Amino acid sequence: MTVGVAGLPMYDWPEVTGAINALWLAIANRIQLAGVETPASVWRPTGHQTLTDLWTHPDLLLAQACGLPVVQALARKVTVLGSLDYAVPGCDPGDYRSVLVCRTDDPSLDLAAFRGRRVAFNESDSQSGMGH
Fold first, then answer.
1. Phi, psi at residue 31, to the nearest 5°?
2. Which pTM value belongs to this model?
3. 60 inside domain
4. What is the rounded CA–CA span in Å between residue 132 and residue 129?
């Protein structure tokens, strides 16, 4: 019997693997209290797997996704249960922010000074990436 697949991939970087694992255990414990079996650990991509492989997995129990894919590619395919709030310093509850990173010797002092310059961003289908 399968217990489903679960993933928290949006900020699952190597330096926070322990924190993501702890978060999953806390979530899994709450789900188990409702009588639902959960996987022992979160899904992490291997080989050529993508986030879409997680989000569209036939045994998906729970997954974290950026807001834009949820309302576009995943609309009517998944059910939103809630939203994590990471309590980012300087942001009101529920808000987030993007960060512009440049060389320390760059003379630009505000966003307007970067207009027309080359940019790298996370994904064109992410909420923060779509505004590039």
1. -65, -40
2. 0.77
3. yes
4. 6
